[in-house]
Structure formats: C-alpha cells, structure tokens
Amino acid sequence: MVTAADQETRQDVAWAAARQLAHEAAEPTPPVQVPLGRAAGLVLADDLVAATPLPAFDTSAMDGFAVAGPGPWTIAGSARPGRPWEGERLADGQAVEISTGAVVPPGTHAVLPVESATTGDGQVTGPELPGGKHIRRTGEDAPAGTSLAPAGAPVGPALLGLAASCGYDELPVRRRPSVRAIVTGDELARHGLPGPGRVRDALGPLLPPLVADLGGDLAGLAHVPDEPDAALAEAVTAASDADVVVVTGSTSVGVTDGLRRLLAERDARWIVDSVASRPGHPALLARPRGGPYVIGLPGNPFAALTAAHTLLGPLLAGLSGRPLGSLPQAPLLTPIPVPAGRTRIVPVVWDGAGVRALGGDRPAFLNGAALGDALAAVPHGHEPGAAVPLILLRT
Ligand SMILES: Nc1nc2c(c(=O)[nH]1)N[C@H]1C(S)=C(S)[C@@H](COP(=O)(O)OP(=O)(O)OC[C@H]3O[C@@H](n4cnc5c(N)ncnc54)[C@H](O)[C@@H]3O)O[C@H]1N2
Ligand code: MOO
C-alpha cells in the first residue's frame, strides 16, 4: 500500500502507480511529417481524418450489369475501373456492363451480378433486385471529415493502407524516442562460460530487442566499470543526446552502485525511486536538470526485465504520444504467494481458460520469461482463478 508520504518521496511506489507516473512524466517528442513509406512503426501525432467521403463515388460491388427500371434491359455500353461509362444518365430499360470497382452510372437502380444475368441480342434479363443492391454508396464507409484513428494510434500496416485510401501522401507522426544503455558490473564477461566471480552479461544481448519491442530506438550500448564513480558519470554525460538513458546494475545502495549518488549530485527530479514489486524493487526513474530521463534497472536479469516493463515501456509510450491503455487481464490459475503491499511479477503461459505460472523466475533467472507468453502482475491476496493484469511478451 502506498502512503501519501511514499508518494511524496516516490519510494515503494505501487506497481500500477509506477507505470502511470512514468507515462505521465514523459513530454511527447515534437510531431514530424513523414512519407507513408517511412511511417510504419511510428505513432500518429494527429487524428487521421477522411478528407473525402469513403468510398469517394458510387461504385459497383459486383461484376455484372448496372440496370435501371424493370427488365429486360438494353445494353448501352460498359463501365470499367478507371474508365466510367460515357453516357449521362441510365434511362429505364437500359443496362451498362459493369466491373467491380467501376463508377455506377447515374440513374442505376441496382447491379445485377453476371451469375444471375442472361444475355442475348444486345439485351440482358434477370431477377428483380431491391434498390441499391450491390452498390457501395458514396460515403457509406465514412462521410468526409470522419476521424478514423486518434492521435496516439500506432501506425501499422492497416493504418498505412487506410491513410493511403484517404489520399494521404504523408502522415504527422512522432519519432521513436532514442535510448542509450549503460551496462555496469566489473564481474561481467561478454564471452565464454560463467565461473567463480565471473557472470555472463545477460543484459547486453537482452536490451536491444527489448528497447525495440517497447517502442524505442537503441542509439548505443556501453559497458562501464563499477568504479570509480566518475566512469558512470562520464558515460551518463556522453549519453545525454538520447531521450532516455538506461543504466543497469547500479540501482542498489552498495559502494559499487553509484547511480543514486550521481542523480543526487545532478539535482535530479525523482519520478519513481523504487517500486513495491518483486522482483524489480530498486528500479528508478529520475530526470537530472537539463538532461535526458534516467532509468535504473536492477542488475539481476529477470528483475531488470520486469522493471523495464514497469518504467521504460510506459515512459517510451508517453514520449511517443501513445496512451498507456489498460492491460489485458486473464484468470491466473496457479496459487502465488505475494507479500503484503507488493505486486509479484511472474512469467505465465496461456492454459485454456486462463494463464498458468511457469516458475524459473528468481530475480537472476530468465528461464520462465524466456518461455512465457506474458508477465502477470499478481496482487497480495490473489486467489487462484481471479483475473490479473498481463504484459504480453509475444504478439
Ligand atoms: N542492502 C541491500 N542490498 C540489496 C538490496 C537492498 O534493498 N538492500 N536490493 C537487492 C535487490 S532486490 C537487487 S535486484 C539488487 C540490485 O542491485 P544493482 O542494481 O545495484 O545490481 P548489482 O548489485 O550490480 O547486481 C545484482 C546482481 O545482478 C548481477 N548482474 C548485474 N548486471 C548483470 C548483467 N548485465 N547480466 C547478468 N547479471 C548481472 C550481479 O552479478 C549481481 O549478482 O540489489 C540487491 N541488494
Ligand atoms: O527485486 Mo530484486 O529486483 O529481487 O531482484
């Protein structure tokens, strides 16, 4: 439970509140206009509005005959996509051979599909059709001026196609925020087997795809020794061209964990200074005066992964103008003990009507997360079968 005093100090912030605070702290990057071909994966900076009615003209939904009045009908020409019928208005008793997607001539009552039509001697016959049958009317999908997607919507394949259908050549978007990562730890090895006093760096390989999944552009990743403190200070200064600096393995209170000392020296504004979650408790988010946002992820790899989803994901969403949205939920079928006042983050897999905890989730062990479909955020007092929020790990 977060008390008013905790909110003031930003310590032990409840897990859901930490996500919210990280999102709210972000000032969105400025909008830019980019050609459609470069907009995929970015976020709309403005509503996407239909400039014309959609469809923009009455169009045939079938290959067949546009007919006027009761049959039989005399065939008076043809209408093809991009090549409308040249007459002015179809008179009763007339028909025009028409293709799907062609302009429906004025005066048309309905389109008779070719499968229902009988032709001969320049005439066509067929069953009586209700007015408007097989005609897609102007503006039937959306009248001009309709807002089709709100600012903050991610630009995916369908949105790009929709924008093109509306006649857009460029879109107003926000660029992906840039991230620089600093991995600290004198014990870390980047190749070969772990052994006494020697830990393989798990976060160097984990961070680039994670940053991309969370909506950022990783501009660089540096390995920095624990001591002296000046090494971390220099690395953070060198990373200040990014929107966000992520530092791993320096969040705790030991002599080799200098991040909090550095943030104090730089008069940083605290946004989150530890989260009431397990793992990921020492995670932090602060902003030194005049510098980029700084996120501290715990050195334990699974703790770092959960903390990135808690703080980095929402911060990047806010920077790119995406709403935080509510998380999907599913019943968690496995009993999970959760200490009072904490949220446990556990890897889960889909299992029929709900999700099942996988295990393999001690703070330094990524086995469960490597195989999981999602991370479940489990509150204190959870009963098996009750729904919990999920952070999806696969799409
Ligand atoms: N007195 C206290 N000590 C600790 C506390 C505390 O509240 N009081 N919190 C513990 C928790 S919880 C965590 S999590 C860690 C966080 O520590 P740091 O972020 O400062 O990280 P380190 O101490 O450097 O490393 C912790 C652990 O993780 C290993 N590590 C570090 N980086 C990597 C990497 N890139 N790849 C793989 N493994 C890594 C490191 O060897 C340590 O074993 O603090 C606790 N202590
Ligand atoms: O909470 Mo730490 O983040 O246990 O590993």
UniProtKB/TrEMBL annotation:
> Known catalysed reaction(s)?
adenylyl-molybdopterin + molybdate = Mo-molybdopterin + AMP + H(+)
Which superkingdom does the taxonomy of this entry point to? Bacteria
| Stored SUPFAM superfamilies | MoeA C-terminal domain-like, MoeA N-terminal region -like, Molybdenum cofactor biosynthesis proteins
Q: In which pathway does it act?
A: Cofactor biosynthesis; molybdopterin biosynthesis
Occurrences of domain MoaB/Mog (ranges): 180-318
Which cofactor is recorded for it? Answer: Mg(2+)
For this UniProt record, give its keywords in alphabetical order, as a comma-separated list.
Answer: Magnesium, Metal-binding, Molybdenum, Molybdenum cofactor biosynthesis, Transferase
EC numbers, comma separated: 2.10.1.1
Q: What top-tier enzyme class does this entry carry?
A: transferase
Q: What does this protein do?
A: Catalyzes the insertion of molybdate into adenylated molybdopterin with the concomitant release of AMP.
Q: Which family does it belong to?
A: Belongs to the MoeA family.
| Protein name as catalogued | Molybdopterin molybdenumtransferase
